[in-house]
Amino acid sequence: MESPVLKLSPKTVTMKFYISLLLVLFFNQTPFAQLQKGFNAQEAKEMIMVCNSFTYLDLYRDDEEIIPIGYSKIYTSKKTGMDNVFQVYTHGKVGVINFRGSTANKFSWLANMYSELLPAEGEIKVKDISFKYKMGKDTASSIHSGYTLALAFLHQDILDQIKKLNDRGIYDILITGHSQGGALAVLTRAYLKYVSAEELNPKNNFKVYAFAMPMVGNKAFIREYNRNFSTPEMSFGLINPEDLVPSMPLSYNDSTFIRKNVAALMSDKVDIDKSVFVKEGMILLFQSQFKDLVTKFSSSIKNQLTAEYGDIKTPTAKDGINFAQIGNIIKLPEPEYPLELKDSTILDDKEFLKQHPRDKNGVFEDKSVYKKTSMNLQHKPYNYYTAILRTYFPKEYDRIDPKSFGL
């Protein structure tokens, strides 16, 4: 007896085809594939949303509104060291490590200002912590002392959390952070490259999105970092050029700006930022004094840290203050909002209002009536979020209530 043959109607066949197609499209869009090299605007948007978790928690004690759909927060570290905290998220088969930026805590700011350059390989001892680190092979490479010290307090917890992600079958991990958090994201990536296979599974695949990050190392370190992570396009820095923080700490950048642009300064045909030229020139002229100042300042900060945490032993600091920024820098527009009128009395001037139209949100088309956005707002993580929407997701940007900008 022949087996019965199931006969499907053309309508059923068509329905099955579309269901299969939808399933294929769905699984191709979910985060189960390995992290790919190259800038991904969707990843960047989701990472700056995650970075805003700390802002929302501070303001509202709830970050549910800003966390991207599909992301689950599975861990928040204790405040440790210089008031540092990091979070761990999962999104399908992708993990996220998110570092908090600077806080109002005194020691958080001392971490920023403790800017001696340490060798890229060495050991830091503080309390019962021994942090043997390697972030580069070049003996000329050096790194920011304050952020390296912050990482000393965090490193074992970070390794433990990566192992826990691995236990879940997660080996693709995004590392992110805003401001000081972005600096820690960059240094953490450099550190993880040289961690032994006994401590870190070689299957792990990392990608960095650092926002508004200050500089973390000298030019030799940055060359290595770029070769290892930026050239393979697995690390990106996103900055607002009007934000001062990414140009910090104070650095004379080996005076390359002066050498490259002295001819341009003499020509009216080439447009250069003369304010940068003056700044670089002053630092070059007084570089020995600046070096002495940084050394004395860092020594004073280290004494304060020692008083708080006990004896701190670090490698001997390198000479110089030639910090440089990582590669793959993506420049974002400065925020449009919040807007503050130069003169609020114009709102009562009927004649002025007739001559100066406003859009549906009540915003004057003539932007000259508004004050320049403050430096503080240029740096805010929420304004980095809206800048990414404005650049890559304009429809989403248009749907945001302008009154919520500038958190």
Summarize this structure briefly.
This protein has 407 residues and is an alpha/beta fold. It is 42% helix and 15% strand.
Secondary-structure topology with pairs:
Blueprint lengths: L9 H20 L11 H11 L1 H8 L11 E5 L9 E6 L2 E6 L6 H8 L3 E3 L1 E6 L2 E6 L7 E3 H23 L4 E7 L1 H14 L11 E7 L5 E2 H12 L4 E5 L16 H10 L8 H12 L1 H23 L2 E2 L9 E2 L4 E3 L18 H6 L19 H5 L1 H12 L1 H6 L8
Parallel strand pairs: 3-8, 8-9, 9-11, 11-14
Antiparallel strand pairs: 1-2, 2-3, 4-7, 5-6, 5-12, 10-13
Helix pairs in contact: 2-13, 4-5, 5-6, 8-9
Task: List the main descriptive attributes of the protein structure presented here.
15% strand, globular, 42% helix, alpha/beta, 3-stranded antiparallel sheet, 407 residues, Rossmann fold
Question: What's the level 1 CATH class of the largest domain?
Answer: Alpha Beta
What's the mean pLDDT score? 84
Strand content: 15-25%
The helix-strand sequence is HHHEEEHEEEEHEHEEHEHHHEEEHHHH
Low-confidence stretches: 1-13, 19-32, 253-259, 261-272
The percent of residues in helical segments reads: 40-55%
| Rg calculated over all Cα atoms | 25 Å
Structural class: alpha/beta
Distance between the termini: 75 Å
Which strand order does the major sheet show? 1-2-3-8-9-11-14
Task: Give the tally of β-strands.
Answer: 14
CATH topology of the largest domain: Rossmann fold
Largest sheet: 7 strands, mixed
Q: Report the CATH superfamily of the largest domain.
A: Alpha/Beta hydrolase fold, catalytic domain
In CATH, the architecture of the largest domain is: 3-Layer(aba) Sandwich
